[in-house]
Design goal:
FAD/NAD(P)-binding domain; 2 domains; alpha/beta; seven-stranded mixed β-sheet; five-stranded parallel β-sheet
Length: 308
């Protein structure tokens, strides 16, 4: 095998990346994992994990991510903070380029960069981010005790955040342009049974209002066209997720939504580059599914390394 800085470089420290790193490190492989944000990836945004095997009483996403990272590091994984800006492909190996100018050669690269919450794209959203526009609900919810918060969206993330906020604040409004909620039945049933969660369908947010902080939402009733202002102190936008495939689209084939196309072995269009977890096309947004992807990617990486 050629001399690489690392046998495998993993991009992203969510469940897929950390599981891949754990398996490869336990197998004695020299593996580096690069994470641009918080170790654990988007697990930080999950208030309660109650559907992961072996955790019957539930835990927070941050706690689960931290334990996953500690276990992988204990097995020998080199875990570093750093943003990947490019993957360069050569016949003799792959180079992972970081935003600080450093780069690492590797036999195999595993892209497990996960997803980020999609922006709504309305006036006031970017300007008031961190001043009432809430990115991480478990991180910031405590700042809104005694205040009014709305959640815009109707998927699992939206209802999970709404239920968390209701327990902390006493009341929350869920707003959605659809005629019904899109979340799975368990969360829909919990929200319907909780009098602190008020659901309003058929409305669209056109602007987030406020000077120094969020003061309200401009809502349009889609049935009547009537525009109104809803006073709120904070808003959580949960209208879907976008893949963190920035910097790899020039070397890897993506689907129309920006997710990385893979075959049944998680191999991408580039040789010796794999993709795992939510960043890949066809993935299921579940922690257990992402961890399974990570284990499968590690096994395939081992097979590919044997061919170098």
């Amino acid at each position: 095998m050629p001399a690489f800085d690392y046998e495998v470089v993993i991009i992203g420290s969510g469940p897929a990346g950390l599981t891949a790193g754990l398996h490869l490190s336990r197998a004695g492989r020299r593996a580096l994992l690069l994470e641009r944000g918080t170790y654990g990836g988007s697990l930080e945004d999950v208030d309660v994990v109650d559907d992961y095997p072996g955790v019957p009483d539930g835990t927070t996403g941050a706690q689960l991510g931290s334990r996953m990272a500690e276990q992988a590091v204990a097995a020998g994984l080199d875990l570093q903070q750093g943003e990947v800006t490019a993957i360069e492909l050569f016949s003799s190996g792959r180079w992972v380029v970081r935003d600080d100018g450093r780069s690492h050669s590797a036999g195999v690269v595993i892209v497990a960069a996960g997803t980020r919450f999609r922006k709504l794209g309305v006036p006031g959203e970017d300007r008031l981010r961190g001043r009432g526009v809430i990115d991480c609900t478990p991180c910031d919810a405590g700042l809104f005790r005694g205040r009014t918060v709305a959640v815009y969206g109707s998927d699992d993330h939206a209802l999970a955040d709404a239920l968390y906020l209701a327990g902390l604040l006493g009341r929350v409004q869920v707003l959605t342009p659809g005629a019904a909620l899109d979340a799975g039945r368990p969360l829909r049933d919990r929200a319907a049974a909780d009098p602190r969660v008020e659901v309003r369908c058929g409305v669209r947010v056109g602007e987030i209002l406020g000077g120094d902080r969020v003061e309200g939402l401009s809502l349009t009733d889609l049935a009547t066209g009537v525009v109104e202002t809803l006073p709120v102190d904070g808003v959580v936008v949960r209208v879907g997720s976008d893949p963190n495939s920035d910097g790899v689209g020039d070397v890897l084939d993506l689907d129309a939504g920006g997710r990385i196309l893979v075959d049944g072995a998680l191999e991408t269009s580039a040789p010796y580059v794999l993709a795992a977890g939510d960043v890949r096309a066809g993935s299921r947004p579940r922690i257990a599914a992402a961890a399974g992807d990570g284990a499968a990617a590690a096994a395939r990486a081992e097979e590919l390394l044997a061919t170098l």
